[in-house]
Structure formats: C-alpha cells, structure tokens
Amino acid sequence: MTDQLRAAVIGAGYWGPNLARNFRTSPDWDLVAVCDLDESRARRVVGARSTVEVMTSVDDLLARDDIDAVAVATPARTHAALVTAALRAGKHVVVEKPIADGGAAARQMRALAAEVDRVLMVDHTFCYTAPVLKIRELIADGALGDIHYVDSVRINLGLVQPDVDVFWDLAPHDLSILDFILPGGLVPTGVAAQGADPLGVGQACVGYLTLPLPDGAIAHVHVNWLSPTKIRQVVIGGSKRTIVWDDLQPQQRVTVYDRGIDLVAGAGADAAQKQAVNISYRLGDAWAPALPEREALGVMVGELAAAIREGRPPRTDASAGIRVLDVLEAASLSLNDGGRLTQLRDTVALPMAGVRA
Ligand SMILES: NC(=O)c1ccc[n+]([C@@H]2O[C@H](COP(=O)([O-])OP(=O)(O)OC[C@H]3O[C@@H](n4cnc5c(N)ncnc54)[C@H](O)[C@@H]3O)[C@@H](O)[C@H]2O)c1
Q1: pLDDT (0 to 100) of residue 162
Q2: Most CB atoms within 10 A, among 158, 278, 320, 353?
Q3: Is residue 266 a contact partner of residue 273, using CB atoms and an 8 Å limit?
Q4: In CATH terms, is domain 127-292+325-335 a member of 3.40.50.2300?
C-alpha cells in the first residue's frame, strides 16, 4: 500500500512487542523502527531478517522525518517526557496506559497535542475488544435502560510490581472500560479506596474501589494480585436488562439478561395503597450476542490511523486518559486517608501516591 502511515515503537519490554506485531500486520501501517535503551530487547522484537530498524536513542528516532507516529510503551514515569518530545518533533503519539504519572503532566500533554495539532491517543486496550465494543453499543442503544450498578472483578496471582500498587497496575483497565461504556464517560461523584498489604511488600496488593455515580448509581472495582484463581468478570445492571461479561468464557463472554426487579406503583382504591410500591421480579430470557474474534491491538492501531487521516480525536483520547488518571489519583488519596470518600479535583500539585519514583 502506498498510503501507509509509518510507525515506530519506543519500549520493547513486555508490552511493546505486542504493539510492534500489530503495527507490522496492519494494512494501515508500516513499522519503521523499534527503539529501546536495551538494544538486545529491540533486536529480539524485530527479528534477524527484518528491514525494521533497531534504535537505542529516542532523540535520533524523533529526528527522523520518515516516521508519522510513535507508540510509547515504557514505564509510566517516563511517559510525559517521551510523549512531549515526540509531539514537539511533530509525531502523532499513542501512549500506553496510564497516560502519565500525574494529572498535571497529562493535562500539559493534552494541551501540547492540541497546540501542535497532533493526535494523542491512549492505549486503553480493552476498549478495542469485541465484548467492550458490544457492551458500549448495547448501552448506547438503550438496551440496558438506566445504569444502576457496575461490579468489576479483576483478580489473579499477579506480578507484585516494584513501582506501582495494585490500583495503578490493574484498575486502569476497569476504569478505562467504565469510561468507555458509561454514557458521558467516567465522572464519579467521589472515590473511596481500601487496600491491604498482607504480605508486607510496601504497597497495596488487594484493592477495593467504590465509585458513586450520578443519579444514585454505583460502580465497584476489585483488583487483587494474591488470588489463586483468575476472575475477569464485569456485571452491569440496568433498569431494563443486565449484562454479565466473563472474559474467561470464550464460548460466551457476554450474556444479556432480561431479568431483574421492577417497581410498580401499588394499585388499589385508597391513597395508601396507591402510594405503596410493589416489587415485581422479571424472569425473562438470557441471550449471548455474537462477537467477532479480532485482536484488540489490531483494532486500536486501525483507530489511530483513522484518527490521523480524518483529523479527529481517537476514541480513547487524552481526555479519556486524564479521567482515568484523576480517579487513580483520588484513589491514592483515599487509600492514604483510611478509605474516606474523596472528591475528584484538579490534582496539579499532588505527588503521585500510587507510583514510586
Ligand atoms: N495496554 C495493556 O494492556 C498493557 C499491558 C501491560 C503493560 N502496559 C503498559 O505498557 C507500559 C510498559 O510496560 P511493560 O510492562 O512493557 O514495561 P517493561 O519494563 O517490561 O518494558 C519497558 C521497556 O521500556 C524501555 N525503556 C525505558 N525507558 C526508555 C527510554 N527512555 N527510551 C527507550 N526505551 C526505554 C526499557 O528498556 C524496557 O525494555 C506501561 O505503561 C504499562 O502500564 C499496558
């Protein structure tokens, strides 16, 4: 294809190779280079016979004029500096989650992208999976009615990370999904976080996030590195229907239940009877929507290309990244304050409580 866009990946650790593979196989993209401070890592990703270049200097990479966009897959604390340099060099950018290690830096990155008129996208990978795209569509079409609650569980025997707690490691996934599927995005009225470090590793390994939502709804997120069993389940209850998404059931990841509780105004002759509210149980069908089997990162790099070509914000733009980051920062404040319900605010001057330098 002659109109392919040209990409480079910065960071060839755990996640970068997945990005490189998807840029390589996408019809929209030509992968030009992979850059890592550790040359051997970049070389391993590129392979022996490839024409993709291996680089170790970000400055040299950004000075090239044959690269349209870079993907930043380095640790969170390095995102702000690398993304800023890439935008200043005129590149479009997709950055790994979380967008940055603090809300102030993320807001500067968003402002710079607008100023230099480049796309700044966050890789909220789950938003490009078939279940999440279908759930978003069902909610937007009104199939669930008003959202009453969301219960998200993401637990397994996880890698205890040296620099982030379990909230910053796992909850970005749940929060980015909530931001993507809830009409109006993730704008909780507060955040309460409780966590535990029963092993004494120095940071929370088990975490519970409670997010009151507008109109009396509520979301809850349970993240845990210490569970012997792996659970990836989200329940989204609505006034009309409820969705259960079990990501570990490939045959039927998403089930829509036409079951729930209805409130019906009391019938009867006198005022007291009319005022009484009766609870009625609805026991309707359950069905499973067909979901295409596509790799989420392939859809993600396609969306990046489309956003660049059409000159529009991508679906998971910098603002989505900032909404997720604001909740994470409020969660860290709440955690250090005994789980108190904490308001989201512009946390410009705050040190980052969940990520160690
Ligand atoms: N979207 C997802 O589902 C998902 C999954 C895992 C990780 N991630 C994100 O990906 C990012 C990277 O995580 P990881 O687990 O791959 O980390 P990692 O530590 O395995 O790899 C990071 C790599 O970046 C390189 N690096 C660091 N600073 C650099 C610089 N200035 N220039 C060039 N290379 C540099 C390191 O040498 C290393 O090879 C994080 O933001 C993480 O949150 C996203």
Answers
A1: 79
A2: 320
A3: yes
A4: no
d(CA 261, CA 256): 15
Closest residue by Cα to residue 120 from 80, 160, 153? 80
Q: In this predicted structure, what is the pLDDT of residue 274?
A: 62
What are the domain boundaries of the chain?
Answer: 5-124+295-317, 127-292+325-335
Q: Residue 66 — φ and ψ, nearest 5°?
A: -105, 25
What distance in Å separates the CA atoms of residue 220 and residue 307, rounded to the nearest whole number?
32
DSSP for 263-279 reads EEEPPSSSHHHHH-EEE
**Which amino acid residue places its CA nearest to atom 38 of ligand 1?**
13
Ligand 1 nearest atom to the CA of residue 173, by list position: 3
Residue 350 pLDDT > 60:
no
**In which region does residue 356 sit, left (phi positive, over 0), alpha (psi from -120 to 50) or beta (all else)?**
beta
Q: What does DSSP assign to residue 183?
A: T
Kindly list the protein residues whose Cβ atom lies closer than 6 A to any atom of ligand 1. Answer: 10-16, 35-38, 41, 58, 73-76, 78, 82, 96-97, 123, 125
CATH architecture of 5-124+295-317: 3-Layer(aba) Sandwich (3.40)
Is the pLDDT at 276 greater than 90? The verdict is no
